[in-house]
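To fix ideas at the outset, we first show an illustrative case, written as a sequence plus integers encoding its fold:
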Amino acid sequence: MKVAVTGGSGFIGCHVLDVLIAAGHSVRCLLRPTSDTSRIAHLPYERHEGDVLDAAAVVSLVSGCEAVIHLALSAGWDQMRTPAQLQALLRTSEQGTRNVLEAAKAANNVRVVFVSSTAVRALCFLAASFLTSCRPSTAAAHQRAFFARTRRQRSWQAL
């Protein structure tokens, strides 16, 4: 399967590319000209230059692919120190995601996997809130069950 990936050179993205390629998928990765590709330099992927904020670049990325994994977002703590940096981060998150979803729809409803660290943090917060409302012994049992279930659900074969 040919899979388009945004954010493939990032901390999570490099592992996603590694797993996809090891599973036999062909990967097309959207990268800015300034992207540090040292984490993925050893992998056989198709480089597609562009930015998630450029709708035309995203349409071109998705063209001919059967799935998209959207990971693109600068999320370093040093990039969230000022209100202007936070606004740029939110703009990239919102507009970039919109561009990916619209490109996938235009390409005959290509399947999309959207990965958001914010969603993961929210899930962990909700899980922690639930766990603290239980008795200590029950909370530990729920926590073990939650993480065991999460590990079982991680499967790239669902693509």
User: Anything to note?
Assistant: The first strand starts at residue 2 and ends at 6.
